[in-house]
Specification:
The protein has helices spanning 21-29, 42-46, 50-56, 74-86, 101-104, 116-129, 149-158, 181-190, 207-215, 232-243, 251-269, 271-277, 279-286, 293-301, 305-313; strands at 10-12, 34-35, 40-41, 66-70, 91-96, 134-139, 163-167, 197-201, 220-223. With 316 residues, the protein is α/β, with parallel strands linked by helices. Bound molecules: flavin mononucleotide (FMN). Flavin mononucleotide (FMN) is lined by residues 13-17, 38-39, 68, 95, 97-98, 137, 167, 175, 179, 201-204, 224-226.
Length: 316
């Protein structure tokens, strides 16, 4: 698959509870080449769930979008596909990395690392239905005793998957511990000369981190926690790759973008939901600003746009 299909190498990773269309729009403004939706339940989509539909809506002008599905087997995915195709995904991604017990106990998410034949069956089911490229986001393995990422990658690519995103941690690690950068090198070497797109995820918090991942031979990088409250990381990374240096945003820009992000969320989801859901993101925007504890408390207690705006602008 050509990198142009997804616009370029710097992608906003799927983040459940975060990467809604408001966040994706802000990330796009700051240079994200494409985004991945929050994980979408194949069963929910097949049953036409309202919440599922909201996850799939785009911001105006969002031409490319990787839609991520999770499901335990090819059956719900098969039933979801006619609906999914209506949303014109640029790429259909399968979640093989989610470590959350509620997901894993159904056989979905990182449980698929233990059943690579089922992950491959899901890929084949999608390929039989549509020409839309398929990708898989996966982990090193279930735990350190079962690091099967290379065999797993082999079986899903044999089934027709054209893009791989390795989150270089095991399921047992969750989101802690260091992501294993050597695994990216091993993956890149294994697929050298193929036309499989290879993305890396894990511990990407600075432009230098992103550059280190690219140096391992990957095609691109997914920004996850490093982009929360920090869409600037896309601009910084592009500048860094071009010039070897980059400019951090001033306090005023951070506050202005936090306010803009809040207003996009209100426009899309209404004031009540947006004010509740945006708190964690607004806190991230102001992280590290000196003497911000009063503003953080005010954000924590706010129930309206006016209160959130007052808290944020108090830091100007
Ligand atoms: C709050 C949160 C939600 C996440 N949601 C998803 C998800 O829906 N689908 C997925 O494949 N990965 C999900 N991830 C994993 C991230 O996409 C990423 O692979 C992981 O955070 C490692 O990157 P980082 O160390 O740079 O944050 C989530 C991670 C976090 C912290």
């Amino acid at each position: 698959m050509d990198i142009k299909t997804i616009g370029g190498p710097f992608i906003l990773a799927p983040l459940a509870g975060y990467t809604d269309k408001a966040f994706r729009e802000i990330a796009h403004e700051y240079g994200a080449d494409c985004s991945v939706t929050e994980m979408v339940s194949a069963e929910g989509l097949a049953r036409d769930g309202e919440k599922t539909k909201t996850l799939l809506e785009r911001f105006p002008g969002e031409e490319k979008l990787i839609i991520q599905l999770f499901g335990p087997s090819d059956d719900p995915v098969r039933r979801a596909l006619p609906k999914l195709i209506g949303y014109k995904p640029t790429v259909i991604d399968i979640n093989c990395g989610c470590p959350v017990p509620k997901v894993v106990k159904t056989g979905a998410g990182s449980a698929l690392m233990r059943t690579p034949e089922m992950a491959a069956a899901i890929v084949r089911t999608i390929k039989e239905f549509t020409d839309t490229p398929v990708s898989v986001k996966f982990r090193l393995g279930w735990d350190e005793k079962s690091m099967n990422y290379l065999d797993f990658a082999e079986s899903v690519t044999e089934a027709g998957c054209e893009m791989l995103t390795l989150h270089a941690r095991t399921r047992a690690q969750g989101y802690s511990g260091k992501a294993d950068r050597n695994a990216f090198r091993t993956l890149a070497k294994h697929f050298e000369g193929s036309n499989i797109l290879l993305f890396g995820s894990g511990d990407v918090f600075t432009p230098e981190d992103a550059a280190t991942l690219l140096d391992t031979g990957l095609s691109g990088v997914m920004f996850a926690r490093g982009a929360i409250g920090n869409p600037f990381i896309f601009r910084e990374t592009k500048e860094y790759i071009q010039k070897g240096t980059y400019t951090l945003p001033e306090r005023e820009e951070r506050i202005a973008v936090a306010l803009r992000h809040l207003d996009y969320a209100i426009k899309y989801f209404g004031e009540k939901i947006a004010c509740r859901e945006m708190k964690k993101q607004l806190m991230a925007y102001i992280k590290g600003i000196p003497a911000s504890s009063k503003a953080k408390n005010a954000i924590g207690e706010a129930t309206s746009r006016d209160e959130l705006v007052k808290a944020l602008t108090s830091l100007r």
